[in-house]
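Recap quiz, item 2
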Amino acid sequence: MALKWSADEVFEFLRAEFPQALRDGVNYEVVKLEPEEAHVRLVAGDQQLRPGGTVSGPAMMEMVDFSIYVLLLAHHKEAARLAVTTNLAISFLRKPQPGPIVAQIRLIKHGRTLTVARVDIISEVDGKLVASSEATYFMGN
Amino acid sequence: MALKWSADEVFEFLRAEFPQALRDGVNYEVVKLEPEEAHVRLVAGDQQLRPGGTVSGPAMMEMVDFSIYVLLLAHHKEAARLAVTTNLAISFLRKPQPGPIVAQIRLIKHGRTLTVARVDIISEVDGKLVASSEATYFMGN
Amino acid sequence: MALKWSADEVFEFLRAEFPQALRDGVNYEVVKLEPEEAHVRLVAGDQQLRPGGTVSGPAMMEMVDFSIYVLLLAHHKEAARLAVTTNLAISFLRKPQPGPIVAQIRLIKHGRTLTVARVDIISEVDGKLVASSEATYFMGN
Amino acid sequence: MALKWSADEVFEFLRAEFPQALRDGVNYEVVKLEPEEAHVRLVAGDQQLRPGGTVSGPAMMEMVDFSIYVLLLAHHKEAARLAVTTNLAISFLRKPQPGPIVAQIRLIKHGRTLTVARVDIISEVDGKLVASSEATYFMGN
């Protein structure tokens, strides 16, 4: 199933419809966008950091949700607006080094109503896995 | 085990050490604080809302993490700084009505190294359960 | 929404269709069955015990899945056969005392396609919460 | 960190200490055992099957817990007896084809007190991912 929107088209939609996801100081960049996989990079702003300069847990959870939504938008265009997150689970494995982090998403189920994605969050500084997450999305009819 | 800090003392610490958790437009209020249970109320700011005025999923996840941390600080004072979230799981059950939401936390395990809390997020407008969460915290030595 | 089957009718169906759930040595008893809530009691057999006589983790996970299925059958009769578990999460809080345990289920969402249940597993011996679980079921069309 | 026990030594221990995990009709086989990764194969017995011959959800949850425990035993020998599962989450993605399934475990954190493993359950018949799981183990002191 080919993607229907490019990363630029997804961001154009987000800027218009969900400006708070791209608010000041939240700097997401899509570095890979394929039908089953996407990589989204975050250079965290002050509000997303903890003392010591590491990205906060809530910023990582927001990043997981955001990154999956980007891929759903690339697949379904505006119709993905109907997608709702039903479950999200995350394990925090180690504090990331100060610096950018990358969310690597893989769709492990992409059904008519339910989509499940697995997300690895990697520190770009040392390549280590800092968090592991899985989330389910429901697209009603 | 009695609490060592009041809500005011907890917030004083947070304002000094984690100012980004209490950044502009994020209005948390502790409405109940007991050894096993706490209620934290959020009047969401613009950045935490979705179209239609409902609180966003990421804002609810941040609220879960924040609320449990408040209770850990009330128990352990500065030492809770060493607590790290190891797992967080959340189910989103229904979109909240526009308006305040309340996180009702209950400690279901409070061990020497591991603490587990269950969190109900309730819409203050209609009293409905909008999300159910559970998180685990590790306090090293 | 009133229940359509009694506990006896549910077990009659299970004995015919899922005999392995009620195999030798697995002794479930429904002690409460209401539209939003059910209590299921287990006197574990040898295969479900760990050294020391405590119920094993896998036996508790099976009990969670079984108990929710009992309530779905009571609601939907044979049609619940189409229900599939999509997610199950469990936290093990403390080892149960040797003796019976009870799963207390509460439906926190019962929608047309998705049902979410929260389950407390309690030791009957000392009344303590030994595990906390949440599971989601999908009933397709 | 090299493994201290072979698969045979692990099973010898299990047969003596946890015979119910290897009860009649539960046929696990370790097909790969490395410090960070293990593959465990299951030819399910009657009690682990659902109508249609597919492996049941509870059998897969038991398999996840069992497989991780095998790897912990290979690492820590009898001392792994002190390991307790603290959390386990699983998503069921599709019904497996009738036939053997394989649990592919990867340790994503192996700390002094907490170990986190991610488990893919694959149908050997068609190679498809049927379930995705993650579990946390605590080894006290």
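Residues 7-139 of chain B form a domain with the Thiol Ester Dehydrase; Chain A fold (CATH 3.10.129.10).
The first helix of chain B runs from residue 7 to 17.
End of item.
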